[in-house]
Structure formats: C-alpha cells, structure tokens
Amino acid sequence: AQSVTQLGSHVSVSEGALVLLRCNYSSSVPPYLFWYVQYPNQGLQLLLKYTTGATLVKGINGFEAEFKKSETSFHLTKPSAHMSDAAEYFCAVRGSGNTPLVFGKGTRLSVIA
Amino acid sequence: GAVVSQHPSWVICKSGTSVKIECRSLDFQATTMFWYRQFPKQSLMLMATSNEGSKATYEQGVEKDKFLINHASLTLSTLTVTSAHPEDSSFYICSARWGTQVDTQYFGPGTRLTVL
User: Fold this and answer.
1) What count of other Cβ atoms lies within 10 Å of the Cβ of residue A52?
2) Do the chains contact at B41 and A108, CB–CB below 8 Å?
3) Which residues of A3-34 are buried (b: 16+ CB within 10 A; e: fewer)?
4) Residue A28: pLDDT band with limits 50, 70, 90
5) Could you read off the pLDDT of A85-101 as tens digits, one per residue?
6) Which of A7-11, A59-63, B25-29, B112-116 has the weakest average pLDDT?
7) A102 CB near a chain B CB, below 8 Å?
8) How far apart are CA B69 and CA A70, in angstroms?
9) Which of A26, A88, A94, B29 lies 20 to 30 angstroms, CA to CA, from A35?
10) pLDDT in tens, B90-100
11) Confidence tier at B106 by pLDDT (50, 70, 90)
12) Looking at the complex, does the CB of residue B5 fall below 8 Å from at least one CB of chain A?
C-alpha cells in the first residue's frame, strides 16, 4: 500500500522567496510520485511527476522536485514565489499497474506581497 | 493534454432527491475512471474505481447503494448520488485513465454539490 504525508497544512512565503513544500511517501513497491496544484473551485493540474530515471524533476511554472529514496521524500521547490502560485498543492503516489492515485492532505500556499 | 469534462459544474438540490454527475473523456478512451470526493480544505478521497463495462469497485466506507457509478462506455462515467442529504454536500472530482501507464490519469474540473 502507498501513502503520502505532507508536512504543514499551510505555508506562507513572501513574494520572491523560496517555496518549499514537503512530501514524504511510504510505498512497498517502487513509487510513482506526483505533485498537483488546485486553484479554488477547480480541478487538479499536474505540476510534475517522477516515474523512473533522473531524480530531479522539473515541472511547469518553475517548480521542481527531487526524489530521494534514502529519505523517502519528494519535496517541491520553486526558487522565487509569485503571487499567482497561491493555491493548494497535493502530493500523490501510486504503484504500478491499474492502481489509483493516493493523495496527501494538501498544503495551502499563501504568497505575501 | 487530454481533456476530461464534468457536468454539471455545480448543482443545488433538495434533501431526498437524486443527482447525477457526468464525467466524459473528450479526446481519449478511458479504460478506467476514478471518482474522488473532496471536503472543504481537505484532500481528495477516492470513492470508487470503475472499468468500462464492469461494476465499480468501492473503497471501504463508501455506500455503493448511495453512490451509484456507471461506466457504460469508454468515454462516459456517471455518479448518481441517491436520496441526497446535506452531509453529501461536497466537491466531486472524476479522473480518467487509459491503459495502466503511470502518467495517463487526467482530472475533471469537479462538481460542487450542495444539498439543502
């Protein structure tokens, strides 16, 4: 079974500051890891994903995440926050085959001008 | 990328009535569809998984008689909330996938259900 834990339900950063959203996973099989963003009253948009290969994954809107097997982590970062980054961010994991995504509880990112 | 639509985007109904939510994959054939429920300021909780032409598999704690799921074709799945009550008010999100490859799961925009 797979699960993810997102540390911090709410993160607040200043515009231009580093964004760091934490995600740790638990998986009995090699995991596939995802970060999604959700704007108010909207569905989910895929930011980036790790499947195999390079452990540093670059996504849209300047976000990236690094898969660290030794730490069972997949933290999301962005060097410089923008006001438009304010949203809810979900980390998700799934195994191979026809298995569904399992989501973390989400982290709300606020960006202060 | 692939597009998944949901209809309606929001619905308000009276307690005791039934509501049907449609999920369509617009430009691909979805062999599997997932239905998630999201409470305010909370994560997405998987309700059920459905494969085209077969019965849905419900997660533990989800009432299959209350949340009827039909996946009659490769492009359409419906979720019917029967005899809705205020506690069923939530944001329902569908997701569609073709095949079993990792990155082929796409999400609809969600349906906001409010039961008065």
Assistant:
1) 9
2) yes
3) ebebbeeebebeeeeebebbbbbebeeebbbb
4) confident
5) 999 999 999 877 767 88
6) B25-29
7) yes
8) 40
9) B29
10) 999 999 987 66
11) confident
12) no
Query: Residue B87 has what DSSP assignment?
Result: G
Q: Provide the shortest C-alpha distance from residue B15 to chain A (in Å).
A: 23
Instruction: Identify the pLDDT of residue A41.
Output: 73
Q: How far is A35 from chain B (nearest CA, A)?
A: 12
| Residue B10: per-residue pLDDT | 95
Closest approach of chain A CAs to the CA of B25, in angstroms?
A: 14
Which of residues 22 through 81 in chain B touch A, CB cutoff 8 A?
32, 34, 41-46, 49, 51
Which tokens hold the place of A8? 């911090």
Backbone conformation region of residue B10, classed left if phi is above 0, alpha if psi is from -120 to 50, else beta: beta
Give the tens place of pLDDT for each residue, A53-72: 889 999 999 999 999 999 99
What is the DSSP secondary-structure string of A59-87?
Answer: -GGG-EEEEEGGGTEEEEEESS--GGG-E
Contact A64, A78 (CB under 8 A): yes
